[in-house]
Amino acid sequence: MSVPGVAAADPQADPPPPTVPNVNAYPPVKTSEYAVMDNNWYAFSIGEGITCVLQRTGSYGCSGPIPAAPNGANLVSGGPGVPGFASSPAPVFAVVGDAKPLPPNTRLSYQTISCGFDGVTTACIDGRNQAGFVISPTGSFVIGQQESDFKPTFQIG
């Protein structure tokens, strides 16, 4: 039933899920050029003060001033299972020093982990479970509850 002179509003639709970049669409960089910590980690930098690492153990993450992170977190990390955001007193991965920047539209991969950077957004995905995370000025978030339609590939060397 409608009432004259009263407009009815449609219920707000849920916003679409955030876009997860397909990091494997980017060409890989040479992993060995990013080796740090006695070749136990592969590290790269993105933006101002953010360092990301892929560890030979299968752990991976980024630390620093993560834009639009939940609760102001400055660390996102994963391994087996879905990654999570946390806060630490200092950037955890700053221990690598001046990490080499990852050029836009490239990816760094080790074993089942691939991290790609398009010049603005960074995404890291674990091919074992399709979990990972996205760092973006419009919103940083964890992947794991939403489906992904791509499988990471890797390059060693």
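the 2nd protein, sequnce then structure:
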Amino acid sequence: MREDIDTSPQRDAEAQEGSLFAWPRFELDYTVEPYDDAPDLYTFYPHDASDEEIITQWVSADEESLVDVTAVR
């Protein structure tokens, strides 16, 4: 292989829209379960999910585990 060829995948979502390296885009809704003696619990699920789909298409995280997505991009 030639050494002058850049074979590293580009991770720029804007430049790679529609490619395998693009950031996925989808809308989420969430609920917050507040606790007095523990961090609040956030549960995320797809925006367009039916009540039946929400049962299997969700993820929860403690408030302490969440970060601003713009801070890690």
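The chain has a mean pLDDT of 81. DSSP finds two helices and three strands in the chain.
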